[in-house]
Amino acid sequence: EPEVTQTPSHQVTQMGQEVILRCVPISNHLYFYWYRQILGQKVEFLVSFYNNEISEKSEIFDDQFSVERPDGSNFTLKIRSTKLEDSAMYFCASGGDSYNYGYTFGSGTRLTVV
Amino acid sequence: DAKTTQPNSMESNEEEPVHLPCNHSTISGTDYIHWYRQLPSQGPEYVIHGLTSNVNNRMASLAIAEDRKSSTLILHRATLRDAAVYYCILRKREQNSKLTFGKGITLSVRP
Question: Which of B36, B42, B46 lies closest to A107 in CB terms?
Fold first, then answer.
């Protein structure tokens, strides 16, 4: 069964450093998403991406965050200057070309900011 | 976004059916009813979705009330692997619509 692959599985970074979280969505999917989950809390929507541009973003997704699809296969989330409160699981998801589908999520990257 | 209401937790016995309820009294005509689950230390996993009619797939069945104000996810024979948080989510009938997760219902399965 096709999978969404995320790397790395765990990243530790110092506060103020930049991090890039990587995702390889399912190859024929057109819609891409990032979500995050702080330990013990709900899964929160960050951003959706289609046709090489952001479709929707949440209040969490401020100027410190950016996304891109640099080469047609990878989908990345960059955090420019990490804060302690950015520590969370970050999940990438992708979906097909119809609203009548379910998303496929990756297994996540655990980001720890120290 | 229309909201869903689920019990906080439920227990079941292995190999017995499980019915997980969800109320969504403010559902609009353009909302799909989606169910996802999240096993411990994993990402959410799509289970099933429907609009008006009951739906079956290899994982589960979804029973939707006639007025669409509630639905029930049915696991026909619970296994220990089904222990997870199950989320009932209303998703707008738009191609790029997001999922808004609530707290979900934590299902425990007793051997």
Answer: B42
Residues of B whose CB is below 8 A from A33: 98
3-state secondary structure chain B: CCCCECCCEEEEECCCCEEEEEECCCCCCCEEEEEEEECCCCCCEEEEEECCCCEECCCCEEEECCCCCEEEEEECCCCHHHCEEEEEEEEECCCCCCCCCCCCEEEEEEC
Q: Is B37 exposed, middle or buried (0-12, 13-18, 19+ CB in 10 A)?
A: buried
With an 8 Å Cβ cutoff, are A103 and B99 in contact? yes
**A33:B98 CB<8 A:** yes
A64-97 confidence digits (pLDDT tens): 999 999 887 899 999 999 999 999 999 999 997 6
Task: Provide the shortest C-alpha distance from residue B46 to chain A (in Å).
Answer: 6
End-to-end Cα distance, chain B? 38
Residue A12 and residue A64: Cα distance in Å, rounded? 18
pLDDT tens figures, B59-84:
999 999 999 999 999 999 999 999 99
A92 within 8 A of A6, measured Cβ to Cβ: yes
